[in-house]
Design brief:
mainly alpha, 4 helices, about 70% helix, about 0% strand
Length: about 70
């Protein structure tokens, strides 16, 4: 699964809860980066980082995929 820029923006501005703690921690970090610089470049970097994480840990994120797919 790959997230789009639109889904990333919703993740960065939303209050979703995720089961995988590492993913939640990464999102907290990305939310701070995006709040300091809400440019398209930052959004693209955040999207790439989320997609890299999802690609690496897709086997343990099944429950969290359901939340992301609804965005």
């Amino acid at each position: 699964m790959k997230v789009t820029s639109q889904q990333t923006e919703k993740l960065l501005n939303g209050l979703q809860k995720f089961q995988l703690f590492a993913f939640s921690m990464m999102l907290t970090h990305l939310k701070e980066l995006y709040s300091n610089d809400p440019s398209q470049t930052t959004l693209e970097k955040c999207t790439a980082e989320i997609n890299a994480f999802l690609g690496k840990y897709h086997t343990i994120m099944a429950a969290d995929y359901a939340v992301i797919e609804q965005l």
